[in-house]
Amino acid sequence: MGNIASAIAVRPEEASIVAELQSGSDEAYNWLVAHYHQPIYSLVYRILSDPSDAADTTQEVFLKVFRGIKRFNGQSSLKTWLYRIAVHEASNQRRWWFRHKSKETSMEAQEDGEGNAYGICDTLADQGESPLELLAHEEVRTRVEQELRQIAEPFRTVVLLRDIEGLSYEEIAEVLQISLGTVKSRLVRGRDALKKRLEVFVRQLGCEPGRSSGQSRKDCANSSAQTRVEAVKR
Fold first, then answer.
1. What does the pLDDT look like over 87-142, one tens digit per residue?
2. What is the CATH number of domain 2-104?
C-alpha cells in the first residue's frame, strides 16, 4: 500500500497506479477508494446538499471509475479525471432533483471563497477561539455555503472547486474541460456574486472589533472579502 501511495504522489509516476487499476488490482482499488472517497463525497455533497443523495451519487461515481478505468488514457491527472466524473454525476442528479423530487416535497431552506476569497471578518484568522467564537464561525460557514448554493451555474461550481476544494486553475480547466481564461472569468463573476449576497450578512455580523480606528464598516467588509473563509472547508 505504501508503494501505491508514493506512486500516485508524482504525476509522471501515475502510470504505475493506473496500470494496477486497469489490471484489476484489489489493492489499487482499495487505495483509490480510501484516498479519494472523502474528498469526492464532500464535493458531491456541496453540490447536492443532501447526505443520502450525496452518498448514493458518490457510490455511483466510483462504480463509473471502476468500469471506465480501462479507458483512462492519462491526458489528465487521475485526480482531475475523478473530479470530472464526480461533477458530472452530481450535476445530473441535481438536475433530476429539480425536475422530479422538488415537485414532490418542499425544499429545505436552500444552503446551496485564493488568491483572494471570502472571509467575513478578519477575526476569522484569530487562533485560540472561545466557544462563542467557534459558534460564530459555524454560523459563518453555514451562511457562506447557503449563499454559495444560490449562485448560478457555471460560476458556482468554479468557486466551489477553487475556493472550497482548493484545485488549481489548471485542474479546474481539466475537470470542467474549459479554457484557463474561462475558469478565471467564471471565478471572478462567481466570487463577485457571492460577495454581493453576503453583504447584508457582513453588516449584520459587524466587524467593529477587528477594525482599526478610522476604518469604516464598508472598508471592513471590503477588506474582509480578501480573506479566505477557512471555516467553509471541512
1. 999 988 877 766 655 444 433 333 333 444 333 333 233 445 555 555 567 777 78
2. 1.10.1740.10
How many helices (H) and strands (E) are present in the chain, helices listed first?
11, 0
Start and end residues for every CATH 1.10.10.10 domain found in the chain: 122-232
State the cell numbers at 179: 479554457
Question: Global pTM?
Answer: 0.62
CA distance 171 to 117: 18
CB neighbours of 145 closer than 8 A, spacing ≥ 6? 46, 111, 112, 232
Cα–chain center distance at 73: 25
Residue 105 vs residues 37, 83, 97, 109, 208: alpha-carbon distances, Å: 29, 30, 10, 12, 42
The fold adopted by the segment(s) 122-232 is Arc Repressor Mutant, subunit A (1.10.10)
Computed from CA positions of residues 33, 39, 44, 50, in that sequence, does the dihedral angle turn out positive or negative?
positive
Residue ranges, comma separated, of all CATH 1.10.1740.10 domains in the chain are: 2-104
